[in-house]
Protein backbone atom coordinates (compact mmCIF):
# COMPACT_ATOMS: atom_id res chain seq x y z
CA UNK A 1 0.00 0.00 0.00
CA UNK A 2 0.84 3.71 0.01
CA UNK A 3 1.89 3.66 3.68
CA UNK A 4 4.42 0.84 3.28
CA UNK A 5 7.74 1.39 5.00
CA UNK A 6 9.29 -1.78 3.56
CA UNK A 7 9.07 -3.90 0.44
CA UNK A 8 9.58 -7.47 -0.68
CA UNK A 9 10.37 -8.14 -4.33
CA UNK A 10 9.22 -11.75 -4.71
CA UNK A 11 9.89 -14.00 -7.70
CA UNK A 12 7.87 -17.00 -8.80
CA UNK A 13 9.33 -20.28 -9.98
CA UNK A 14 9.89 -21.80 -13.41
CA UNK A 15 6.71 -21.94 -15.49
CA UNK A 16 4.68 -19.95 -12.97
CA UNK A 17 3.48 -16.34 -13.06
CA UNK A 18 3.00 -13.64 -10.42
CA UNK A 19 -0.66 -14.64 -10.30
CA UNK A 20 0.37 -18.00 -8.83
CA UNK A 21 1.78 -16.22 -5.77
CA UNK A 22 -0.61 -13.26 -5.45
CA UNK A 23 -2.78 -15.05 -2.86
CA UNK A 24 0.19 -15.95 -0.66
CA UNK A 25 1.68 -12.46 -0.85
CA UNK A 26 -1.75 -11.02 0.00
CA UNK A 27 -1.83 -13.24 3.11
CA UNK A 28 1.65 -12.09 4.10
CA UNK A 29 0.68 -8.45 3.46
CA UNK A 30 -2.33 -8.90 5.75
CA UNK A 31 0.04 -9.96 8.55
CA UNK A 32 2.65 -7.32 7.62
CA UNK A 33 0.60 -4.27 6.57
CA UNK A 34 3.67 -2.01 6.47
CA UNK A 35 5.26 -4.19 3.75
CA UNK A 36 4.55 -3.79 0.05
CA UNK A 37 4.87 -7.01 -2.01
CA UNK A 38 5.97 -6.68 -5.62
CA UNK A 39 5.82 -9.66 -7.97
CA UNK A 40 7.71 -9.12 -11.22
CA UNK A 41 6.93 -11.53 -14.08
CA UNK A 42 9.67 -13.69 -15.55
CA UNK A 43 10.13 -13.34 -19.30
CA UNK A 44 8.89 -16.14 -21.54
CA UNK A 45 11.94 -17.88 -23.00
CA UNK A 46 12.86 -21.29 -24.41
CA UNK A 47 13.88 -23.67 -21.63
CA UNK A 48 16.18 -26.58 -22.48
CA UNK A 49 14.73 -28.71 -19.66
CA UNK A 50 11.31 -28.22 -21.28
CA UNK A 51 12.46 -29.47 -24.69
CA UNK A 52 13.23 -25.93 -25.81
CA UNK A 53 9.61 -24.83 -25.57
CA UNK A 54 9.03 -21.31 -24.25
CA UNK A 55 7.74 -20.80 -20.74
CA UNK A 56 8.06 -18.16 -17.99
CA UNK A 57 11.66 -18.52 -16.78
CA UNK A 58 14.16 -16.22 -15.13
CA UNK A 59 16.95 -18.14 -16.92
CA UNK A 60 17.48 -21.35 -18.88
CA UNK A 61 17.73 -24.64 -17.02
CA UNK A 62 19.55 -27.31 -18.96
CA UNK A 63 18.64 -30.36 -16.90
CA UNK A 64 17.94 -31.84 -13.52
CA UNK A 65 21.64 -32.36 -12.78
CA UNK A 66 24.01 -29.92 -11.11
CA UNK A 67 22.12 -26.63 -11.44
CA UNK A 68 24.65 -24.77 -9.32
CA UNK A 69 27.26 -25.09 -12.05
CA UNK A 70 25.00 -24.47 -15.07
CA UNK A 71 25.61 -21.14 -16.83
CA UNK A 72 22.02 -20.01 -16.12
CA UNK A 73 21.78 -18.25 -19.47
CA UNK A 74 19.50 -15.23 -19.15
CA UNK A 75 20.14 -14.70 -15.43
CA UNK A 76 22.03 -11.45 -16.05
CA UNK A 77 19.09 -9.99 -18.01
CA UNK A 78 16.71 -11.07 -15.25
CA UNK A 79 19.04 -9.62 -12.62
CA UNK A 80 18.61 -6.26 -14.32
CA UNK A 81 14.81 -6.59 -14.02
CA UNK A 82 15.14 -7.46 -10.32
CA UNK A 83 17.60 -4.62 -9.71
CA UNK A 84 15.24 -2.12 -11.32
CA UNK A 85 12.42 -3.38 -9.10
CA UNK A 86 14.66 -2.95 -6.04
CA UNK A 87 15.54 0.62 -7.00
CA UNK A 88 11.88 1.48 -7.68
CA UNK A 89 10.79 0.09 -4.32
CA UNK A 90 13.74 1.68 -2.50
CA UNK A 91 12.60 5.08 -3.75
CA UNK A 92 9.08 4.37 -2.42
CA UNK A 93 10.03 3.03 1.02
CA UNK A 94 13.12 5.05 1.87
CA UNK A 95 16.14 3.00 0.82
CA UNK A 96 17.44 -0.38 -0.30
CA UNK A 97 17.96 -1.27 3.37
CA UNK A 98 14.15 -1.51 3.56
CA UNK A 99 13.84 -3.93 0.64
CA UNK A 100 14.06 -7.72 0.85
CA UNK A 101 14.46 -10.03 -2.13
CA UNK A 102 12.55 -13.28 -1.96
CA UNK A 103 11.31 -16.07 -4.12
CA UNK A 104 10.37 -19.67 -4.63
CA UNK A 105 12.46 -22.20 -6.56
CA UNK A 106 13.91 -20.36 -9.58
CA UNK A 107 12.61 -17.10 -8.11
CA UNK A 108 14.49 -17.82 -4.87
CA UNK A 109 17.58 -18.58 -6.92
CA UNK A 110 17.23 -15.20 -8.64
CA UNK A 111 16.81 -13.44 -5.29
CA UNK A 112 20.15 -14.84 -4.09
CA UNK A 113 21.84 -14.26 -7.43
CA UNK A 114 20.66 -10.64 -7.67
CA UNK A 115 21.72 -9.76 -4.12
CA UNK A 116 25.18 -11.30 -4.43
CA UNK A 117 25.99 -10.14 -7.97
CA UNK A 118 25.22 -6.48 -7.28
CA UNK A 119 27.95 -3.87 -7.56
CA UNK A 120 26.66 -2.38 -4.29
CA UNK A 121 26.99 -4.54 -1.20
CA UNK A 122 24.94 -5.04 0.78
CA UNK A 123 22.40 -4.46 -2.00
CA UNK A 124 19.25 -5.18 0.02
CA UNK A 125 18.18 -5.75 3.63
CA UNK A 126 18.05 -9.51 3.18
CA UNK A 127 17.10 -12.49 1.06
CA UNK A 128 14.47 -15.19 1.51
CA UNK A 129 15.07 -18.21 -0.72
CA UNK A 130 12.44 -20.96 -0.56
CA UNK A 131 13.30 -24.24 -2.32
CA UNK A 132 16.04 -22.53 -4.29
CA UNK A 133 19.78 -22.52 -4.75
CA UNK A 134 22.55 -20.23 -5.96
CA UNK A 135 22.85 -20.59 -9.75
CA UNK A 136 25.95 -20.04 -11.88
CA UNK A 137 28.42 -20.23 -9.03
CA UNK A 138 31.35 -19.73 -11.43
CA UNK A 139 30.11 -16.23 -12.34
CA UNK A 140 29.50 -15.46 -8.70
CA UNK A 141 33.00 -16.56 -7.71
CA UNK A 142 34.39 -14.10 -10.26
CA UNK A 143 32.28 -11.29 -8.78
CA UNK A 144 32.88 -12.04 -5.13
CA UNK A 145 36.53 -11.16 -4.85
CA UNK A 146 38.19 -11.86 -1.48
CA UNK A 147 37.53 -8.24 -0.41
CA UNK A 148 33.82 -8.39 -1.29
CA UNK A 149 33.05 -11.93 -0.15
CA UNK A 150 32.92 -11.29 3.62
CA UNK A 151 30.77 -8.19 3.15
CA UNK A 152 28.36 -9.97 0.83
CA UNK A 153 27.96 -13.17 2.76
CA UNK A 154 28.32 -12.11 6.39
CA UNK A 155 26.43 -8.83 6.33
CA UNK A 156 23.55 -10.03 4.18
CA UNK A 157 20.85 -11.82 6.18
CA UNK A 158 19.70 -14.87 4.22
CA UNK A 159 16.85 -17.22 5.08
CA UNK A 160 17.28 -20.41 3.06
CA UNK A 161 14.35 -22.85 3.40
CA UNK A 162 14.02 -26.16 1.61
CA UNK A 163 11.87 -29.25 1.99
CA UNK A 164 13.56 -32.64 2.09
CA UNK A 165 11.05 -34.15 -0.34
CA UNK A 166 11.26 -31.51 -3.07
CA UNK A 167 10.90 -33.40 -6.37
CA UNK A 168 12.03 -30.48 -8.56
CA UNK A 169 15.03 -29.04 -6.71
CA UNK A 170 16.98 -31.52 -4.61
CA UNK A 171 17.63 -30.44 -1.03
CA UNK A 172 21.32 -31.07 -1.76
CA UNK A 173 21.32 -27.92 -3.92
CA UNK A 174 20.24 -25.87 -0.90
CA UNK A 175 22.81 -27.56 1.32
CA UNK A 176 25.57 -26.85 -1.19
CA UNK A 177 24.39 -23.24 -1.45
CA UNK A 178 24.53 -22.92 2.34
CA UNK A 179 27.97 -24.51 2.47
CA UNK A 180 29.34 -22.12 -0.17
CA UNK A 181 29.25 -19.31 2.41
CA UNK A 182 32.42 -18.77 4.46
Automatic annotation (TrEMBL):
User: Which superkingdom does the taxonomy of this entry point to?
Assistant: Eukaryota
Instruction: Extract the Pfam families matched here.
Output: Abhydrolase_2 (PF02230)
- GO MF term list: carboxylic ester hydrolase activity; palmitoyl-(protein) hydrolase activity
Q: Which residues form the Phospholipase/carboxylesterase/thioesterase domain?
A: 4-177
Q: Which InterPro entries match?
A: AB_hydrolase_fold, LYPA1-2/EST-like, PLipase/COase/thioEstase
Q: Which controlled-vocabulary keywords does the entry list?
A: Hydrolase
Q: Please give the family membership noted in the entry.
A: Belongs to the AB hydrolase superfamily. AB hydrolase 2 family.
Q: Identify this protein by name.
A: Phospholipase/carboxylesterase/thioesterase domain-containing protein
Which organism is the protein's source? Answer: Zooxanthella nutricula
Amino acid sequence: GGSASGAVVFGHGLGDTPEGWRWQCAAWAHELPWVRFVLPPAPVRPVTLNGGYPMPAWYDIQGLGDRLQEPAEGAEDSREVWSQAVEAEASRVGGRDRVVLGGFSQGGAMALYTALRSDMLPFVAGVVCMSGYLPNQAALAATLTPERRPLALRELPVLLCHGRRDAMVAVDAARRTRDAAP
